[in-house]
């Protein structure tokens, strides 16, 4: 899908921009990215999705050009935002969430009926909790470089030399800085979120995906296992050769798997 339009959707106290590929309002998949990601990072995946006439990628609040987080921000804020976005389309067939976006999607499908839910490496508490004091300090100091360092090093477990190699790429580092401003509040919201006995109780079908390179490994593989235990009706799939950033490292493979799951759900 090459054609894309952007729609701004008013949500409580803010706004979100939705990138819509293909038909403006056909049978749709709605994509919810996670932390340190935006809708632009999902453009290649969107172009590899097949089986929906409409692909809608949410640029969540707190990242340009969407509006701010607002003071009362928590997971429920995101759930209500996602519900508002879903109401913009007449025929949502699939809800897809990545990482924190997967947690948002799981909570939404616990609250309202969803025909088909797919989540790639969703996270849940405790995730990144030990990093919260340093993330808070960086946020209060307005130090975006420190926010990125803490997020990559303490939350994802990235080695120091790898972080420094990323810093050496000025364009890449600037992009990470731009996405890091909401990370303290987002990480706190993950750890403050209610934990239902069963996620996605109102989803007719649930598919969870884990990258092969993360299977059983902290932090993403272990939190995935926690989510899977709280989602007993889910079918678990493994994406060969991939880790958490499959949307950047293998958008064609991720798009193909998600598309296959759509056909399996029909």
From TrEMBL:
Gene3D superfamilies linked to this entry: alpha/beta hydrolase
AB hydrolase-1 domain segment(s): 29-254
Pfam families, A to Z: Abhydrolase_6
Keywords from the named record: Hydrolase
Domain of life: Bacteria
GO terms for MF: hydrolase activity
Protein name, UniProt field: Alpha/beta hydrolase
């Amino acid at each position: 899908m090459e054609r894309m339009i952007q729609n701004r959707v008013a949500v409580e106290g803010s706004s979100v921009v939705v990138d819509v590929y293909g038909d403006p309002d056909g049978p749709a998949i709605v994509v919810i990215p996670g932390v340190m990601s935006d809708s632009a990072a999902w453009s290649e995946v969107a172009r590899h999705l097949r089986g929906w006439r409409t692909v809608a990628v949410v640029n969540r609040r707190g990242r340009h050009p969407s509006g701010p987080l607002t003071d009362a921000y928590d997971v429920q804020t995101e759930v209500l935002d996602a519900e508002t976005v879903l109401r913009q389309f007449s025929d949502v067939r699939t809800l897809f969430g990545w990482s924190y976006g997967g947690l948002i999607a799981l909570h939404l499908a616990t609250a309202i009926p969803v025909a088909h839910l797919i989540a790639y490496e969703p996270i849940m508490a405790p995730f990144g909790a030990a990093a919260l004091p340093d993330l808070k300090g960086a946020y209060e100091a307005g130090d975006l470089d420190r926010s990125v360092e803490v997020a990559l090093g303490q939350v994802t477990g990235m080695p120091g030399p790898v972080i420094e190699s990323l810093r050496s790429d000025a364009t890449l580092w600037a992009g990470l800085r731009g996405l890091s401003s909401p990370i303290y509040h987002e990480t706190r919201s993950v750890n403050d979120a209610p934990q239902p006995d069963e996620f996605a109780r109102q989803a007719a079908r649930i598919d969870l995906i884990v990258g092969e390179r993360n299977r059983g490994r902290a932090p993403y593989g272990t939190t995935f296992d926690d989510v899977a235990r709280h989602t007993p009706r889910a079918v678990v799939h493994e994406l060969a050769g991939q880790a958490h950033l499959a949307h950047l490292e293998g958008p064609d493979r991720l798009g193909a798997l998600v598309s296959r799951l759509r056909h399996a759900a029909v």
